[in-house]
Fold each of these.
Amino acid sequence: MDTPATQLELVRPWRIAAFVVAAIAGVELLLLVVAALVLAGRTFAPQINAAAAAAKPAPKHHAAVPAPAKTEPFRPPRLVATLPRSKTGILILNGNGVQGAAAQAATIVRARGYLVTDTKNAPRSDYPTWRLMAAPDMGGEAKRFAKDLDMPLGRVGPLDGMTPKQLHGARLVLILGVSR
């Protein structure tokens, strides 16, 4: 029979062999991980290099800068009315809540020679002042209309938020407010 000491001697060579095999397997695993990283690096290297090149600012070339040319200050184009008043369609919207204000304004506008396409109530009735909105190509006509009605030019703005159907053929929209 085997004594406990002999059993220990028989177990030790297997234990050492198991440690050696585990160490070899660990080294192989480490080599596989390194190989995978190298292969992945080669696969993604072009994309990484391209991204890095795109992130770098372009090199600055120091070239002689010519003296700036003297230019005149910017002046917006002069707005000149091209349509006669009788062809300038205006929609008048009552935005002050006073009954009949749009009809009264239409009488004044027609007396100045303009074409009133329609009078209606504005979507709300709390506009503090009169406003004039013009289609993009109607700046000259809007300026002339504002002068004809003694309106400040600061109250003339772009026509927006309305569909052509709502305009009834008008290219200018006058919104009546509480004060002129």
Note: Residues 138 and 171 are 7 Å apart (CA to CA).
Amino acid sequence: MATRTALDDVKADCRKTAAKCRDKAAREMPEAALQLAGHARLVKQHFNLNVIAGYWPIKTELDCRPLMAALSEHKQSVMTGNINLALPVITAAHAPLRFHLWEQADVLEEGPYQTCQPCADRPEVDPDLILVPLLAFDKTYHRLGYGGGFYDRTLASLAEKGHRFSAIGVAYDTQYLQEVPIGPFDRALDGIITPSGLYLKDQDDKSWDTEN
């Protein structure tokens, strides 16, 4: 059995604080999901999209479904056709996530950890853009998750097989921390999308970074 490390303890304490912060933001910003969807055109300008993977929100995660709907309403170009949507499927506790196509009218199955996921007969896909839930993020675009390691394993697995993709975190602006505790397997995101806008790793303008 693996022993807890000092980093584990720091992350556990940070998760408790970050969860309270997100809970507060969810109560105070009921229009946040619609504000997020308002940035759909900006997302399309920066990413070459065919398949977008989001998530079915649990707890007080910022709902990315209106953004996904807004992104799927328009064709990226005559050449690429419609933008397809996908949701993650948990197959095992220590396995990477798999992504299956999803349409808003689909009936979903109940998954682990109170999640909802597409039925197994829906086609499996590798997304071009992954919208990632989180508890906190920092100026280096690292995220703090729940500790299960699902997204870290998933992003690493896609990269190892040579699939080109981008991953952006979905968050309230107040989920920003100056520094998220990270370990050797934690991977930085390519950007963060919040109700105030889309922020990319190679940009200097970060309105949520008010202390640096």
Note: The chain has one domain: 6-200.
